[in-house]
Amino acid sequence: MSNRPPKVPFVNFSLQHHPIQSQIAEAIIKIIQEGDFILGQALAEFETAFAAASGVKYGVGVACGTDAIALGLQACGINPGDEIIIPANTFIATIIGVIQAKAIPILVDCDPETALIDLTAAETAVTSKTKAIIPVHLYGQMVSPGQLLDFAKRHDLIIFEDAAQAHLAHREGYRAGSIGKAAAFSFYPSKNLGSFGDGGMLITNDAQLADKMRTLRNYGAPSKYLHTEIGTNSRLDNLQAAVLNVKLPYLKKWNRDRTAAAQYYDTLLEPLKHKGIVPIANHSSSGHIYHLYVIQITEKSSIDRNTLQEKLAQDGIQTGIHYPLPCHLQPAYQNLGNRGDFPHAETLCQQILSLPMYPGLSNTQIEQVVRAIELSLNC
Question: How far is residue 135's CA from residue 117's CA, in Å, rounded to a whole number?
């Protein structure tokens, strides 16, 4: 018999889905029986419910989070050639959404402690062509609303939030998605609120913006066969909306479970800080909803990140890297900067490691992960 410890998966969807499986099945069967597949009642209900839960008036469901950015920027009045400030430390979808809107992404570095956009660095990136800033609420932690609002006011910029990892995160009295003119969310299956496929949404308090977004997602047509915009086909289908409707009431609890797991990680990892294992800083208290729990393996560590990841894998512990290469060093996007331009983002990419994190992750599993890290450092 093997003495290897039980596997700790990076995510475990069954812990969320099994208790509500019958509710999900019932919702799906209802859609099938009614034949209400596109732009139907389930979508309208979910758009209203998710917007309200996020503290805004309107939600517009689209096919994916990338489309929520691209179409959302167009709906906000972003024009070809407008410059948009975004962090170098983000998933590539943020870049793609800006480019699809025919705008120009202007990268800035991140804060080395939180991995969020460095608004001080962003000050030097503003030009006469700058029209918006996209704060990415990374790993489940929001960029400071107060600092962001001050920055946007000083430079007369639109705030368009990338909240793909921050469902119901909060900070300084704001929910993610309620700070700026509009915000984009993703419902990719691994998100805190995930569908059974791709899905996304734009939320806003601006009725006209929401109407334009509905037009853009549906072939540019405000009514059937009348096309007033150059739009596309990007609609969150009713089956996915039905699943999300069932899951949404559980989201607050699932987020609390993640926060509790993160707090236990923090406690157990505290003695390892002097050995170079440093969790990404939380400046949001309970408002951080921990889509990911990320640590840095710094220069003080006896081993590097890749070696630690390999050793954890040998112990049956799955991990991830979010993200291994900054946007400006990706082969397709090297026009956005050169090596050395964004040193904090570049360093983080070499040091960060995402540990298992999901609702239902047990204290025993967390202890197993941390113990495996300790043994790896001492080997």
Answer: 7
Q: Token match 């009514």: residue?
A: 223
- The pLDDT tens digits for 36-48 are 999 999 999 999 9
Helix (H, G, I), strand (E, B) or coil at 279: strand
Provide CB contacts within 8 A for 141, sequence distance 6+. Answer: 114, 116, 166, 169, 171, 282, 283, 284, 287, 288
Residue 206: other Cβ atoms inside 10 A: 16
d(CA 52, CA 249): 12
**Selection from 284, 281, 282 nearest residue 298 by Cα:** 281
How many DSSP H helices and E strands does the chain contain?
A: 13, 12
Report residue 19 as tokens. Answer: 């208790």
Q: Which amino acid appears at position 134 of this protein?
A: I
> Kindly report the CA angle at 169 between 147 and 39, in degrees rounded to 5?
115
Q: pLDDT of 196-209, one tens digit each?
A: 999 999 999 999 99
207, exposed or middle or buried, with CB in 10 Å at 0-12, 13-18, 19+?
exposed
Distance separating the N- and C-terminal Cα atoms of the chain:
24
On whether the CB atoms of residues 344 and 321 are closer than 8 A, the answer is: no
Q: Residue 147: which of 113, 117, 114 has the closest Cα?
A: 117
CA atoms within 13 A on the CB side of 129: 11
| Phi and psi, residue 356, nearest 5° | -50, 135
Rounded to two decimals, the pTM is 0.96
Alpha helices in 54-159 (DSSP H): 65-75, 92-100, 119-123, 145-155
For residue 230, which phi and psi values (nearest 5 degrees)? Answer: -85, 90
SS3 content of the chain, % helix, strand, coil (to 5): 45, 15, 40
Query: Measured between alpha carbons, how far is 38 from 239 in angstroms, rounded to an integer?
Result: 9
**Across-strand partners of 107?**
86
Give the whole-angstrom CA distance, residue 318 versus residue 267. Answer: 21
- CA-based torsion, 258, 260, 264, 269: positive or negative: positive
Query: What is the rounded distance in angstroms from the CA atom of residue 342 to the CA atom of residue 87?
Result: 9
Q: Position of tokens 């419902």?
A: 187
